[in-house]
Amino acid sequence: MMADIQHHGLDIFSPYKVGNLALPRLHELAAAINRIREGQWQ
Known about the structure:
- The protein is mostly helical.
- About 50% of the residues lie in helices and about 0% in strands.
- It has two helices and no strands.
- The termini are far apart.
């Protein structure tokens, strides 16, 4: 997925080009995944 993003840009996630998308920092992505995992056990 990261190779696709580097090659085509973040616009591959949108049905049309918006030009205002930004990649999250790695620790932000890890924190979001951690919150999802914690929510499944409650």
